[in-house]
Write a structure and sequence with these properties.
This protein is α/β, with parallel strands linked by helices. It folds into 2 domains: 254 residues, Glycogen Phosphorylase B (Rossmann fold), CATH 3.40.50; 170 residues, 3-Layer(aba) Sandwich (Rossmann fold), CATH 3.40.50. It has 14 helices and 17 strands. The strands form 3 sheets. It has an 8-stranded mixed sheet, sandwiched between helices. Helix 1 crosses helix 14 and helix 8 crosses helix 12. It starts with a strand and ends with a helix.
């Protein structure tokens, strides 16, 4: 198959759950098919013609233009071997820029939610249209519903929406957890907009690919979707094959993007409410917080808490996994599935999570991880794993076997390929039915 994959930004560096999942799918598809990735990038070519863009996080790649079309660039650092990349330059204001807040203000009178409205780019729309006509793809994939406003005209080809969350649910959960007042009202407004927007957009695609059975049911019940299919959350188990957890350690670890609201919210709650209970039982316990772009608010929260270290952005999380004894997922809002849980499990680390943190994953409490929702129960679970290395090892080894046997990265790519073929079949059936109706209508008028 010839596949066109549309992403708002480059999928590298793969530093979020969504990017990791997308990379796994792209790599798997590229082994058997011709895959083209089109995306926005921010930056400029340097004197040597190398493209330096924020979206590529410093990875340079040659940038070419022809007749105003999207630039063709090679896949980055061998990480996406076989994927042909098409970079489309754009400008976008940072959150601290006044233009960002002006756009947010204007969004109050726009029907689309802000995260979709701000991601619409006329240059990307033109590039997608040009690539569709030039490549004549067998199927077109849109990554995340927020990207859908850049996909005008793709519906002349079989189309798939890859949904990593039920986005309206994410906003509603943020609204419920936000402080009363302006922020809660803002999240509630965005949730209402996303509910309408997501309902409209998912119906425009031949197939919707969800990442859990739970999300599939929500798409069917909330939006009346009929062609929703699921891929498993998977992990590159070979990447963690050489990681050996330190069973003698008293170190607790959290890894996650700290610029995604549910993560700093959960970590802040853990530090303030749960960590003092753990330290009371295990005075030499330490807690490391690893993740990209930590904000000043989180730094202020942890600065005065004994035993807590805010590490922030790191090039490789594996050294931190190797010296940890327990990993935690204290999440109280969000959606989709947490890939970080399988990444903790792959090297054999025991995990403590809230119910929402492991939502959508086929894991069992007491066998693959420990699940706790109250502060006291969460603290007891962490203390038990720190105090009983044999029990921690048993939970960790069971989790590692479970992930390695069932959720290796190739699994998701094979499932995704099957859903692409289903989209092609549904598209052809729809076109045949439309043509038959046209013929009958013409005959009736004659």
């Amino acid at each position: 198959m010839r596949i066109l994959f549309i992403s708002k930004w480059h999928v590298l560096p793969a530093d979020t759950g969504g990017k990791i999942r997308t990379c796994q799918v792209l790599k798997g598809l590229a082994r058997r098919h011709e895959v083209h990735l089109v995306y926005n990038t921010v930056g400029r070519p340097n004197a040597r013609g190398r493209w330096e863009g924020r979206a590529l996080s410093g990875h340079g790649c040659s940038f070419g233009r022809d007749a105003g079309g999207p630039g063709d660039v090679p896949s980055d650092s061998g990480f996406l071997d076989g994927v042909r990349c098409h970079a489309v330059p754009t400008t976008t204001p940072a959150q601290r820029d006044w233009r960002y807040w002006l756009a947010l203000g204007r969004n109050f009178v726009h029907p689309a939610p802000f995260n979709a409205h701000k991601d619409r780019d006329p240059a990307l729309i033109r590039a997608v249209s040009e690539l569709c006509h030039r490549l004549q793809p067998d199927v077109v994939i849109c990554d995340f519903v927020q990207t859908a406003l850049n996909c005008n005209g793709i519906h002349h080809w079989p189309s798939v929406l890859f949904q990593h969350n039920v986005e309206a649910e994410v906003f509603w959960r943020q609204a419920r957890r936000a402080p009363k007042g302006t922020w809660r009202a803002l999240f509630a407004l965005q949730a209402q907009k996303m509910l309408r927007f997501e309902r409209d957009m998912v119906r425009r695609f031949d197939v919707v690919v969800a990442i859990s059975e739970r999300d599939k049911v929500l798409f069917e019940q909330l939006y009346g979707c009929r062609n929703v299919f699921v891929i498993d959350t998977a992990v590159d188990v070979e990447r963690y094959a050489d990681v050996r957890p330190d069973r003698r350690s008293r170190r607790v670890l959290f890894i996650g993007g700290l610029d995604w609201i549910p993560n700093p919210h959960g970590v802040t709650h853990f530090c303030r409410r749960i960590w003092p209970l753990i330290r009371a039982e295990v005075p030499d316990a330490t807690f490391e917080i690893v993740g990209r772009n930590p904000g000043p608010d989180l730094a202020e929260v942890v600065s005065g808490i004994p035993g807590v270290t805010l590490v922030g952005t790191v090039p490789d999380t594996r050294p931190y996994l190797a010296r940890a004894a327990v990993c935690v997922v204290p999440l109280y809002m969000g959606g989709g599935t947490r890939m970080k849980i399988y990444e903790y499990m792959a090297p054999g680390l025991p995990v403590v999570s809230t119910s929402l943190g492991c939502e959508g994953l086929p894991v069992r409490h007491g066998e693959h991880l420990l699940v706790a929702d109250s502060d006291e129960a969460f603290a007891r679970a962490v203390v038990r794993l720190l105090s009983d290395p044999e029990y921690a090892q048993r939970i960790g080894q069971q989790a590692a076997s479970f992930v390695r046997q069932n959720f290796a990265a190739d699994v998701a790519a094979v499932q995704f390929e099957g859903h692409l073929r289903q989209a092609i079949r549904l598209f052809r059936a729809r076109r045949t039915a439309e043509n038959n109706r046209s013929v009958k209508g013409a005959s009736a008028r004659a």
